[in-house]
Amino acid sequence: MIQDQSHPFLRPLWRRIVLVAFCAAWSIFEFATGSAFWGTLAGGMAVLGAYQFLIAYKPGDDAPADKE
User: Fold this and answer.
1) Average pLDDT score over residue span 38-55
2) How many domains in the chain?
């Protein structure tokens, strides 16, 4: 599982959607070319990403923590 879901790269919704869509498209590509194993792996990544990035995602605090 991804350990750093609060990474600043993942804050914009469009980036999380693009990541999931890319994995889903890659899965379709792999199945279309006859690679069921890799299609299943990419599809699993798409499902896991959809859950982690779109359903269970909790955005972190936008304000940086004070470092004293």
Assistant:
1) 94
2) 1
Domain that holds residue 23: 19-55
Q: What does pLDDT average to over the chain? A: 84
Does 13 fall in a domain? Answer: no
27 in any annotated domain: yes
- Residue 36 has φ and ψ, to the nearest 5°, of -65, -35
- Tokens representing residue 16 in the block: 């999380």
- Domain annotation covers residue 63: no
- Global model pTM greater than 0.90: no
Contact (CB, 8 A) for 16 and 10 = yes
| Burial state string for 6-26 with b = 16 or more CB within 10 A and e = fewer than 16 | eeeebeeeeebeebbeebbeb
Is 38 within a domain? yes
